[in-house]
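re: that complex we talked abt at group meeting.

here r the seqs, copy pasted straight from the sheet so there may be weird spacing, ignore it
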Amino acid sequence: DAGVTQSPTHLIKTRGQQVTLRCSPKSGHDTVSWYQQALGQGPQFIFQYYEEEERQRGNFPDRFSGHQFPNYSSELNVNALLLGDSALYLCASSWPSTGVRGYTFGSGTRLTVV
Amino acid sequence: KQEVTQIPAALSVPEGENLVLNCSFTDSAIYNLQWFRQDPGKGLTSLLLIQSSQREQTSGRLNASLDKSSGRSTLYIAASQPGDSATYLCAVSSGGGADGLTFGKGTHLIIQP
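got the structure back, here u go
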């Protein structure tokens, strides 16, 4: 049973560029959440997608946007990259959408902005 | 706004010891609480999930307790092993699960052989 799959595993981008990160949820899961984890910090909630809609959003600017596809996979897009966007980006999936059964996390995408 | 604090921030103990990691949260109206393990540069591995109506959960050498009224949870690790070395993260879910998880900064645990 495949868990949460994220791609790419590592990425280096230049300040001002745009980036797209991808996530495939665990089989049977329909809800996808994205988190940003800076070095030495706990993950911070970016947003959650359910039924192809953004259901809830954390305290992140509009430069961060996302999408969920009919097969429940998701993308995280970040525009106008800043040096401070360098972090580990984690995707988590769940079912049902309430998270009553907990969340399963992927291995993350390490984004470095130079 | 929910805030989660984990104490201690770092812990180093000899192999074989029993240890307790602490997690506290400011808003007791949680939906559930989840403990995760994170190895350096890696994703999160779920260890234990406690629903708001439960008092504890056990898995092997791990036991997690929840006291919602006081805003506290503890993770007990019995007979620690070098392979237990990792960062342990506590996360709470609020708002019926729609608000995402709020994490603490973690406890960095080193088990000395």
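couple things i noticed - The mean pLDDT of chain B is 95. The longest strand of chain B covers residues 30-38.
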